[in-house]
Here is the input.
Amino acid sequence: MEQDVSSNVMRTFRTLDKKSNRTAFITQKFEETFGGPPTFIASAPGRVNLIGEHTDYNNGYVFPVAINKYINIAARKRPDRRVTLYALDVDDSWEFSLDTLPTIPPQAPTWSHYFIGVASLLLRKSRDHDHRDGVLPTASGREIAGIDAVITGDVPIGAGLSSSAALSVAAALAFLTAGSEPEVVESEDNKKKLAELCQRVEHEFVDVKCGIMDQTISLLGQENHALFLDCRSLEYEHVPLNLAEHVITICNTKIKRELAASEYNKRRAECERGVDILSRWIP
Here is the structure.
């Protein structure tokens, strides 16, 4: 018998159980959509970066903090290889078969690309023993399963808080949990490998040449700590934030940004070209 959702919240994000109202809300919406309860909820936080803009994709140092805003996915395993998704916040649905991957139909909404990408890369690893990012998805090599899922969150979309990274991380956790492999990301080493996989999702399926920071802090963030991360080696240190009477204030300007349609990829290409030129004189 599958566990009730209240006892099967992803342990990776221990603060999820504090948001009982949000958990009850997404559970209700799942029941309305699919006619029964979810068996687990996967969750991933957004982030702010205190210092180190444009240094993550230049393999420099960054200092991000995970925030108490999340992308949540209520889901259950299907008996077949279908993936049926409902994005509550944009009132949009999409479904696909694991057997058609990695094809992205032209009419597929952008948000679904993250699920298609995550599923494609996890399947590629299990089928082809692709270990470029480590041992993921599983030591057993078990393939991922189809899922029913409802997606919602309180990370503002397009506000610079990494809602896209949180979505890809939560999607990966959902597929791994449905495949009875949540322990794959119990270790911090495997969390780093999963962060690299989610970065590749954005590169290959969303056409955003992002760095590794957002996915890493979403997986490795700790309460009341920042993450001092070397984006070249992925070595990191959790640094306590002893703010005393101070707080970190995040302001939403309401100005939306779309990295795939912005100058982001151009800036990255310019930085890479600059490094290539400088490296001729400074090895």
Notes: DSSP finds six helices and eight strands in the chain. The beta strands are 40-49, 61-62, 64-77, 82-87, 92-97, 147-153, 225-230, 236-240. Helices lie at 20-34, 110-128, 163-178, 188-206, 213-220, 264-278.
